[in-house]
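Example record used in the benchmark description.
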Amino acid sequence: MSTTTPTETLERTGFFIGGEWTSPAGEGTIEVIDPTTEEIIGHVPEGTPEDVDRAVAAARKAFDVWSQVPVQDLSLIHI
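Model output (structure tokens):
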């Protein structure tokens, strides 16, 4: 098994919440580490309790709609 070194780093500056990219509430970042090489391959925003609250609210709102879609219709959706 061979491994390759990524040519690009993963750099994210926001969260995908409620169907759109949003800015994080805080300014912290977290290093993304490749578990096979233990090398830093990018950075992502560090979530705050406010970010979690926004994500949970968006998920709750989406659940109210999606839970009403018949299973037969859900099986036709490819996300």
